[in-house]
């Protein structure tokens, strides 16, 4: 039996290993199918040899043209992030609630602009391919985030991919249960929030 001083660290590492084995795959690829996980996406080239990649997706019963306006108006004092507003506001990321309607004044986003946030760095827009893909680069060469729309017969797939090369693989491995869980919960709510808004009939 290991000395008492080593039992707690050993238990923590064991719990982290269990998380990686059973829960992390579900968190990293929630909603995405195998083809979506493996398919190259716009912006992949901005982060070479990432330490971590997530691919998450939802099906939306609407054409790309009904989803795109919600993406380009994201940001603080714009459309919001469509996630858990109470948490985004508590951490100072947003200063108000996410919009429940399309805001014409924020539809002119272009590559080179930024998605503004209340606290923390803004998200530069690197690629904007109308009704197809929006790629953000929160940390140059280190973090990229792509939102891509793939129309199918009676719905559109909204696929989100994040590629990360910050800290080290070991640090990300150890912190995964905490970082992944928070990130997963917020992004899943964002994707569902976009779906809810895009599927709602316009008045």
Task: Summarize the SSE layout with pairings.
Elements (H helix, E strand, L loop, with lengths): L3 H25 L5 H5 L13 E9 L3 H9 L12 H6 L23 E2 L7 E7 L3 E7 L3 E9 L4 E9 L4 H31 L4
Model description:
With 203 residues, this protein is α+β, with helices and mostly antiparallel strands. It has a single domain, classed as Alpha-D-Glucose-1,6-Bisphosphate, Chain A, domain 4. Helix content is 37%, strand content 21%. It has helices at residues 4-28, 34-38, 64-72, 85-90, 169-199, and strands spanning 52-60, 114-115, 123-129, 133-139, 143-151, 156-164. It has a 6-stranded antiparallel beta sheet, with helices on one face. The radius of gyration is 18 Å and the shape is globular. The chain starts with a helix and ends with a helix. The relative contact order is 0.21.
Number of helices: 5
- The number of domains is 1
Outline, from the CA principal axes?
A: globular
C-alpha Rg, in Å?
18 Å
Strand content is 15-25%
Notable characteristics:
about 200 residues; alpha+beta; Alpha-D-Glucose-1,6-Bisphosphate, Chain A, domain 4; 6-stranded antiparallel β-sheet; 6 strands; about 35% helix; globular
Summed up, what is this model?
The protein is an alpha+beta fold. It is 37% helix and 21% strand.
């Amino acid at each position: 039996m290991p000395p008492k001083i080593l039992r707690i660290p050993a238990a923590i590492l064991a719990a982290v290993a269990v998380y990686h084995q059973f829960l992390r795959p579900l968190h990293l690829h929630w909603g995405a199918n195998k083809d979506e996980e493996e398919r190259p996406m716009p912006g992949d080239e901005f982060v070479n040899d990432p330490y971590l990649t997530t691919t998450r997706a939802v099906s939306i019963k609407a054409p790309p043209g009904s989803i795109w306006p919600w993406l380009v108006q994201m940001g603080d004092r714009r459309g919001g992030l469509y996630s858990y507003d109470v948490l985004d506001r508590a951490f100072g990321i947003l200063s108000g609630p996410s919009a429940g309607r399309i805001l014409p004044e924020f539809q002119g986003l272009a590559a080179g602009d930024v998605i503004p946030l209340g606290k923390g760095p803004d998200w530069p827009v690197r690629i904007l391919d109308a009704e197809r893909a929006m790629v953000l680069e929160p940390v140059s060469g280190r973090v990229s985030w792509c939102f891509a729309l793939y129309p199918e017969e009676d719905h559109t797939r909204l696929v989100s991919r994040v590629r990360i090369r910050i800290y080290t693989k070991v640090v990300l491995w150890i912190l995964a249960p905490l970082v992944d869980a928070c990130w997963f919960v917020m992004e899943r709510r964002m994707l569902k929030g976009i779906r809810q808004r895009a599927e709602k009939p316009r008045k």
